[in-house]
Structures are given as structure tokens and as C-alpha cells.
């Protein structure tokens, strides 16, 4: 192993020379992140032209302008929307303008601190089941990425359609993961904003499973309308009760279904990725793992973590924050300029594609000290971090609505698992970060499992 591999966990190999179209297309098919030029880690903005003009923005002030100050001039580009629309319709994630605004106002109360804390027992129960499965692998290597996908799917399906017998979890899991796998390979055409009518063959194949899943969800929602809510409302109960305070509009069955499926699609894999990369990083840095375990064992005393424990697990939280910096699940956001503008002294023209390569922002040498190093102490509260240098959940009015939900789940799962098990790397099986809609560990996260002492 060379010294770099000992010091730094896996990185995306970035481009150091100018590429022709063919080289770019080949790289993009491999991994969209490989299109990011290395200079993006040393400059605030990088621009180019391929069909359309594009800009990669890594400057905190310019990012603030795009996400907050001039948010209406920079709507989401068609990239992610076209991929997601067949699955989740004109829901919160995809909608723009007035149709987005009323849905956001109606959904905001669902994610209050109190409602999220009420859902913590579901996360703790999933953490317990996950530990039982991991326990069956003691003494050998197991793929923690697959395990975390199972665990976070249990959570999201239990907080959306809890206790509904008609709801076939396995069918939904298969449909959602199958859809993402087959369709989400973001093509270069998508990134550069070329016409969206170019059919993407793979994207059209999965519509059968999707429409079955939608029908099933609709029946569950209609049945739930007739029932009085349980003591602890789940996300469906809360959305059913939700109403836009301004227009008094509430969601019909199709809107409810599209938004619940959005929570599943947007919330399950992203949280699983955070946890899998965190487990990998803790195996990479065994001192950090020992430190996290000491904290978790001290606080939990053999129990499973609950929402009350979350504020008492600050190092666990730092590890999660640092994981989201190094391997942000949403590593590449994209917008289309609606007006001429200036960003970092550069002219932006209407219709230019403006990308926010969060992966590059989080590893910029202008913003971070030794950016490729795993160092949870960056987030210990003693160092100032520019808010717009760290954007794992985006920012502004379209900031991730599920951020606190995801953080609570990640802290509960990670502290519980690490308090019980010890993980070490499997030589030659380090994951490679690859962007397929989200930043995934190619090859899985294979780690040796032992009982913790
Ligand atoms: C670690 C886990 C997660 C990460 C890294 C993440 C990341 C993000 C990011 C970056 C955005 C903004 C996208 C953009 O501006 O283009 C976003 C939006 C969104 N996320 Fe998350 N997310 C996570 C978990 C969740 C969860 C658990 C839920 C729901 C239960 C969720 C629901 C949503 C929704 C509905 C939006 C769209 C909000 C809007 O446009 O108003 N996410 N997420």
C-alpha cells in the first residue's frame, strides 16, 4: 500500500488535462464525477461548453446567491427531475413555483422536532434488527452497504405506511431500488441539459413495477383516510392532516402518494449511503472507531440508542458530519439559469447549466485544510465553517426537508451498531466512490465483523 492510500480514504480520480468529447463521454459513462477537473478543487468557478455553456460553482458566496438570494432565477435543471418524475410525479422534490410552495408549506409541519423524535422508536427497532443480522456475520466479512440499505428501508417504510397490511414492503423495495438502478445512471446529456425527449431506453423499462406500486400506495392511503390516526402519527397521518396555511389546500390521494414515494426515494438510499461510508471510514481510522465506541458504550450502557441519547453523542455526530463532507450522497446538484447574471466575476447567460459539484466543494483546497483527510474534529464546534462551504443537504428554501430526520436516524443506527461490533477493512476490497444519481460505494462496503469488547 502506498503512503497516500494509508493516509487518505478512496477518492474520485479527477481530470488533470483537457478532454475531447469522446473521452468525456467515456468517463461520464464510468462515473459522472470523473468529469470534474482537478482545478475545481483549487478555483471558485470552472466553465466550459459542450452543446450548452456550463459552469461548476465552488464559491460559497456564489452558492448562496444560487440557492438563497436568487433562488427563483436558478430553478432545478431537468437532470434529476426527468429521472425522478416518472416515479414521484410533480411532488415536493420536482415541482417549481406556486405548486412547489404550497406543498412545502403543507409538508413542513410533518418534520418538526417533536414529530421526528416521536418516530425514533422505529429507528431504534430497526437498529436492533440490523445488529441481529450483523451479529450473524461475526468472524467473517459482510457487505455493510447492503445491510444499511435494508435497515434504512425498514425505517422509511415503517414511518410512511406503518402497519398497513395492504402495503407490500418487499414489492416497494424492489420497485424503488430497481427503478433507481436501471434509470438513474445520469447521462452526460442530462448533466449538460440537452433535450430531454431523447429516449433513454433503460428508463422506459421499469414503468410496470412503478405503476403497480402507485396503485398499491393509493389503496393504502384511501383506506387510511377512513381510519382514526394511531397515538403516534406516522408521516402519512401527518401529511393527511397537513394543509397549506396560506391557501388551505391539502393533498389529494395522488399528491400524497407522490410525496410519500418521494420521501422513500429521497430518504432511504441517501441515509444508507451516509451510514455505509461512515462505517467504512471508521474501519479506515480505527482510532476514530475506538473513540466513537467509547462514547456510545458510555452513553448507552448496552441499550439501543433513542432520540434522547442523540444530544449526548457529539462525536458520533461529528463522524456523520465528516462523512457527509467526504462522501456527500447528493454529490452533484444542477440548476438552469433563467436570467443573465454574474457569478465570481464570470458572465452567466440565460439557459446556461449551472452545476453545484458538492463533492468538489467539500474537497476544495481554498475552503478546507487537508481536504482529503478524514478528520471528524473539523466539526467539533471550535472551528468556524462557512455555511456555504458545506452543503450536504443543499440550502435556501429548497434545503432537504428530511435533514433532521436523516441525522437522527444516522446517529441512532451508528452509535448502536458501533457499541456492539468492531469493523476492520478487508484487504483489496476498498469501495470506489461512483456517482449514480447518488454517490455510491462501488463493490459495496465489505468489512470484517467482530464482537466489540
Ligand atoms: C443523509 C440523507 C440525505 C441527504 C444527503 C439528502 C440530501 C438532499 C439534498 C442535497 C436536497 C436538495 C436538492 C437540491 O437542492 O437540488 C434534498 C432535498 C429533499 N430531500 Fe433530502 N437528503 C437526505 C435525506 C432525506 C430524507 C430522510 C427525506 C425524507 C424523509 C428527504 C426528503 C427530501 C425532499 C422531499 C427534498 C426536496 C425538498 C424541496 O425541494 O422542497 N431527504 N435532500
Descriptive report:
This protein has 453 residues and is an alpha+beta fold. It has one domain: Cytochrome p450 (Orthogonal Bundle). 48% of the residues lie in helices and 11% in strands. The protein has 18 helices and eleven strands. The protein has helices spanning 3-7, 21-30, 60-69, 78-88, 97-107, 113-118, 120-135, 144-160, 169-183, 188-191, 201-205, 207-226, 235-241, 253-284, 286-300, 314-326, 358-361, 403-420, and strands at residues 45-50, 52-57, 141-143, 333-336, 341-343, 346-348, 353-356, 421-425, 432-436, 438-442, 446-451. The strands form four sheets. The chain has a four-stranded mixed beta sheet with strand order 1-2-7-4. Strands 3-11-8 form a three-stranded antiparallel beta sheet. The protein has a two-stranded antiparallel ribbon with strand order 5-6. A hairpin with a 1-residue loop joins strand 9 (432-436) and strand 10 (438-442). Helix 14 packs parallel to helix 18 (403-420) and helix 15 crosses helix 18. The model is unreliable at 194-205 (pLDDT under 50). The structure holds protoporphyrin IX containing FE.
Amino acid at each position: 500500500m502506498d503512503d497516500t492510500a494509508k493516509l487518505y480514504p478512496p477518492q474520485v480520480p479527477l481530470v488533470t488535462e483537457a478532454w475531447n468529447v469522446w473521452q468525456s463521454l467515456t468517463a461520464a459513462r464510468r462515473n459522472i464525477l470523473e468529469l470534474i477537473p482537478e482545478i475545481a478543487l483549487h478555483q471558485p468557478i470552472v466553465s466550459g461548453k459542450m452543446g450548452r455553456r456550463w459552469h461548476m460553482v465552488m464559491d460559497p458566496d456564489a452558492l448562496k446567491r444560487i440557492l438563497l438570494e436568487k433562488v427563483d432565477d436558478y430553478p432545478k435543471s431537468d437532470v434529476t427531475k426527468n429521472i425522478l418524475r416518472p416515479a414521484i410525479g410533480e411532488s415536493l422534490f420536482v415541482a417549481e413555483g406556486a405548486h412547489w410552495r404550497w406543498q412545502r408549506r403543507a409538508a413542513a409541519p410533518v418534520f418538526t422536532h417533536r414529530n421526528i423524535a416521536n418516530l425514533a422508536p422505529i429507528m431504534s427497532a430497526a437498529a436492533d434488527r440490523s445488529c441481529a443480522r450483523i451479529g450473524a456475520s461475526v468472524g467473517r466479512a459482510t457487505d455493510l452497504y447492503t445491510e444499511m440499505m435494508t435497515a434504512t428501508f425498514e425505517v422509511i417504510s415503517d414511518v410512511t405506511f406503518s402497519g398497513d397490511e395492504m402495503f407490500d414492503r418487499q414489492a416497494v423495495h424492489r420497485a424503488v431500488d430497481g427503478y433507481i438502478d436501471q434509470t438513474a445512471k445520469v447521462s452526460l446529456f442530462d448533466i449538460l441539459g440537452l433535450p430531454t425527449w431523447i429516449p433513454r431506453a433503460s428508463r422506459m423499462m421499469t414503468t410496470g413495477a412503478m405503476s403497480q406500486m402507485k396503485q398499491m400506495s393509493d389503496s393504502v392511503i384511501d383506506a387510511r383516510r377512513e381510519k382514526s390516526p394511531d397515538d403516534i402519527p406516522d408521516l402519512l397521518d401527518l401529511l393527511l392532516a397537513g394543509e397549506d396555511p396560506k391557501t388551505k389546500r391539502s393533498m389529494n390521494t395522488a399528491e400524497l402518494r407522490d410525496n410519500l414515494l418521494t420521501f422513500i426515494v429521497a430518504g432511504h438510499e441517501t441515509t444508507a449511503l451516509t451510514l455505509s461510508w461512515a462505517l467504512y471510514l471508521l474501519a479506515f481510522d480505527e482510532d476514530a472507531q475506538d473513540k466513537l465506541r467509547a462514547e456510545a458504550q458510555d452513553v448507552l450502557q448496552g441499550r439501543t440508542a433513542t432520540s434522547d441519547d442523540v444530544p449526548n453523542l457529539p462525536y458520533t455526530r461529528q463522524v456523520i458530519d465528516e462523512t457527509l463532507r467526504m462522501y456527500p450522497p447528493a454529490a452533484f446538484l444542477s440548476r438552469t439559469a433563467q436570467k443573465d447574471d454574474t457569478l465570481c466575476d464570470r458572465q452567466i447567460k440565460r439557459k446556461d447549466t449551472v452545476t453545484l459539484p458538492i463533492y468538489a466543494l467539500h474537497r476544495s483546497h481554498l475552503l478546507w485544510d487537508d481536504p482529503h483527510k478524514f478528520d471528524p474534529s473539523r466539526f467539533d464546534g471550535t472551528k468556524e465553517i462557512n455555511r456555504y462551504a458545506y452543503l450536504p443537504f443543499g440550502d435556501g428554501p429548497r434545503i432537504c426537508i428530511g435533514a433532521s430526520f436523516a441525522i437522527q436516524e444516522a446517529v441512532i443506527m451508528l452509535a448502536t451498531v458501533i457499541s456492539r461490533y468492531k469493523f476492520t477493512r478487508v484487504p483489496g476490497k476498498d469501495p470506489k466512490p461512483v456517482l449514480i444519481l447518488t454517490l455510491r460505494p462501488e463493490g459495496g462496503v465489505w468489512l470484517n465483523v467482530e464482537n466489540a469488547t
